[in-house]
Amino acid sequence: MNPAFKWLGTQPYESAWEKMKRHAALLTADKAEEVIWACEHEPVYTTGKRAIDNRLDKALPAPLITTDRGGETTFHGHGQVMLYPMIHLRRRALTVRQYIHLLEESAIQTLYHYDIKAERRCGLPGVWTSKGKIVAMGIRVSQGVAYHGMAMNISVDMAYFKAINPCGLSQNSVSMQDSLDALPATKSVAKTWANSLRHLL
User: Fold this and answer.
1) CA distance linking residue 152 with residue 111, whole number of Å
2) What is the pLDDT of residue 109?
3) With helix as H, strand as E and coil as C, how does the chain read?
4) What whole-number distance in Å separates Cα of residue 120 and Cα of residue 170?
5) Considering 108, 156, 167, 194, which one is annotated as catalytic?
6) Fewer CB within 10 Å, N side or C side of the chain?
7) Is residue 200 part of a domain?
8) How many domains, in total, are found in the chain?
């Protein structure tokens, strides 16, 4: 059975993270089903459990939260879709590498739906256009269950990214607005993206 999709609207990061952890624990215990959540966040910087400090400015224009996902510091905020699949990899006989490939492919297909050409780059997680990185990734896998997920930029205020070296990379972060004259609604992008992933799983 494909996971259900739920749009959560705008969420504070920490409350969404707590909900994810609770649902992942229930999924691990076979007391919940797989699900794909999507939302926007209030402006926030998050960093992975390695907590590598890649700030370019000591004073950030939004709070910084250390999480339990992989990856380095990045920004989340308005104009960005967060896709949070909670998937039982062990039950699906998926390796982490295979799962990451599916996540990236779902983003590539979603961007193609909006006439934006995107691709992987060897050795670099996430998805890229010719202009820069448009989708960032950070996941956690515990007891065979994956949570956290990906962030796709639609119309993000890029000033927030100038305070950090996003995910340890010097390349530009870009948004869909850099390639499109008319932007789709955030919720519409989220639904398209979730459906793409559901078809791939």
Assistant:
1) 9
2) 98
3) CCCEEEEEEEECHHHHHHHHHHHHHHHHCCCCCCEEEEEEECCEEEECCCCCCCECCCCCCCCEEECCCCCCCEEECCCEEEEEEEEEHHHHCCCHHHHHHHHHHHHHHHHHHCCCCCEEECCEEEEEECCEEEEEEEEEEECCEEEEEEEEECCCCHHHHHHECHHHCCCCECCHHHCCCCCCCHHHHHHHHHHHHHHHC
4) 17
5) 167
6) N
7) no
8) 1
Segment-wise mean pLDDT, segments of 10 residues, the chain, 201 residues: 94 96 96 97 88 69 88 88 97 96 97 96 87 92 96 93 65 87 95 97 96
Strand-by-strand arrangement of the 145-153 sheet: 4-11, 35-41, 80-88, 145-153, 132-142, 124-129, 119-121
Q: What is the pLDDT of residue 167?
A: 53
What per-residue confidence (pLDDT) applies to 1? 76
Measured CA to CA, the distance from residue 189 to residue 175 in angstroms comes to 13
- Is 39 in the active site? no
Residues in the chain: 201
The whole-number pLDDT of residue 53 equals 64
With respect to residue 130, please indicate whether it lies within any of the assigned structural domains: yes
Bridging pattern class, strands 4-11 and 80-88: unpaired
In Å, how far are 17, 108, 128, 152, 201 from 113, measured between CA atoms?
A: 29, 9, 15, 14, 18
CATH code for position 51: 3.30.930.10
Residue 189, domain member (yes or no): yes
